[in-house]
């Protein structure tokens, strides 16, 4: 049984994330927790007193949550899936961390607002903060994505990290669910000159993938001066339908996402991103 958290602000992109998750895990027993976090300023709690919450505001949020649960149940009827609504007040990251612990969450699925929302999302809003501050796998779904399982998944890596069991298990699960081909991508400005650590890590990953999906994975090396431009081009030309990365790989992660130049992030408007934590 998978426990999946779907934060929602009742926008189209958060609905799209919920629909994508329900489609992706259609054959898995899942409990989906649909969470809306209100600011404390939206409540009538003042000082140290515990006053009754404003009935109209509370009803409005609860009504929207109920409508979301009813809608997903109607659009995606699946006896394997159970949807539970959660309403909380407070700091979004703090509430999310608490919910992950209490509900034993395996994966967070979040929507983004496409190009216009990417800079804020990656550089400090809820999605970016969840990716960088919470040790839980996160699947980020752009608003333009059609709910379907990917057929090709790209895994950019510099082979500097040892692939621990949680990471390998996450890769295995995503491949088993999607039946997708995995393309492991290494990028450099010139022909690679791997360190001993990189050689060992690459060989370990190669042996693992050869055992679990010998016919459906490949290792690719791409030359290019700009890491983001290289990966954008590769994703477009090779019809990649999901990108997955290790959050701990901070150097590569920063090269791909932490930049003020918006056009370099444009591929994310059409490709889901799975961020894996140990």
From TrEMBL:
Q: Which InterPro entries does the annotation name?
A: Rossmann-like_a/b/a_fold, Universal_stress_UspA, UspA
- Please list the residue ranges annotated as the UspA domain: 1-142
Name the domain of life. Bacteria
Would you identify the family this protein belongs to, as annotated?
A: Belongs to the universal stress protein A family.
The entry's protein name is Nucleotide-binding universal stress protein, UspA family
Q: Which organism is it from?
A: Maribacter ulvicola
Instruction: Give the source lineage, highest ranks first.
Output: Bacteria, Pseudomonadati, Bacteroidota, Flavobacteriia, Flavobacteriales
